[in-house]
Amino acid sequence: MTPAHTIWLMIRMNDRTKTYLGAFGCLLVAAIWGSAFVFMKDSFDHIAPASFLALRFSLASVVLWLLLGAKRRRLRPRAWRDGALVGLALWGGYYLQTLGLEQTTASNSALITGAYVVFVPLISWCFTRRIQPAQLMIGWITLVAIAIISLDGDFRFGRGELLVLLGSLVYAVHFLLLGHYAPHYDTTLFTTLQITFAAGYNILAALITDPLPHFSQLPATVWGALFFTAVFATALAFFIQTAAQKVLAPAPAAVLFTTECLFGVLFGVLLLNEQLLPRQLLGGAIMLCCILLTVRQENRNQAKA
């Protein structure tokens, strides 16, 4: 056995190293997703949102199928059916969020998207009728925080913010569906299926709503954004997320993933020169507190179970 193999085995057997690497992976994914708001926002001057998503998910799907290898033989009709359902929710969340991003700032979009963590227990209550009073209160406070972030000087809720909020609700549905179906399948295989179906739904939506893009006229910045969001923010990010959540408990993983909204605001301010009003900073701070309280409450519920 070579020294390299020995070191590798030591790393694999070291639980603390696994935990640190998993935490770093979560933060890396959160940073990638946060920066994706900026890349997408900057591309909408040249390509419609639905067409952008169709290209993004199609490229990501191709990458994942190439990496899938021999696992393709494990595909069964039931996996295709479940992948189609979860992929539909994934498409709905991204589609609504991206339409909203076209009409609002990257910072607002990132902050409001983070509310999906709070919406998960609220949507679960619709089916189980079980919810803690604290979770219900946190849900109401989150809506207040979203209003503080989104309402303009005339106390109107912008269309872009509303679409992002609806996308956040659909993300919560996707989170619940994924938690129900994913344990029954190989994680890489099921990730590939849901992204493949999301690509198909995006292509259909683009054909219905958008004119066919003139690919030769797209600037290099758009192709760069497509490459980044497809390879890094979709294929690689989902792969890292799957690997990280195998060594991290759900509660700390959720806390780390919610830093996506912080990275989204940071990159929006630094790269797009977006300005945050004091009320938006206040609303963002309240929402982050609600997200952390939700994760803490969920952790307590799991400990009692």
**What count of helical segments does DSSP give?**
13
- Inertia-based shape: globular
Q: Could you give the order of the helices and strands?
A: HHHHHHHHHHHHH
Percent strand:
under 5%
Compute the number of strand runs.
Answer: 0
Distance between the termini: 44 Å
Helix content: over 70%
Mean pLDDT: 78
The main sheet comes to:
none
Low-confidence stretches: 1-11
Describe the structure in your own words:
This protein has 13 helices and no strands. It is mainly alpha-helical and 305 residues long. Helix 2 packs across helix 5 and helix 4 packs antiparallel against helix 8. The chain is globular and about 45 Å long. The chain starts with a helix and ends with a helix. The N terminus is likely disordered.
Q: What keywords describe this structure?
A:
single chain, 305 residues, mainly alpha, disordered N terminus
Chain-wise SSE layout:
Elements: H1 3-13, H2 15-43, H3 49-68, H4 77-101, H5 106-113, H6 116-128, H7 133-150, H8 159-181, H9 187-209, H10 220-244, H11 250-257, H12 259-272, H13 278-304
Helix pairs in contact: 2-5, 2-10, 2-11, 2-12, 3-9, 3-10, 4-8, 4-9, 5-8, 5-12, 6-7, 6-8, 7-13, 9-10, 11-13
Summarize the model shown.
With 305 residues, the chain is an all-alpha fold. It has helices spanning 3-13, 15-43, 49-68, 77-101, 106-113, 116-128, 133-150, 159-181, 187-209, 220-244, 250-257, 259-272, 278-304.
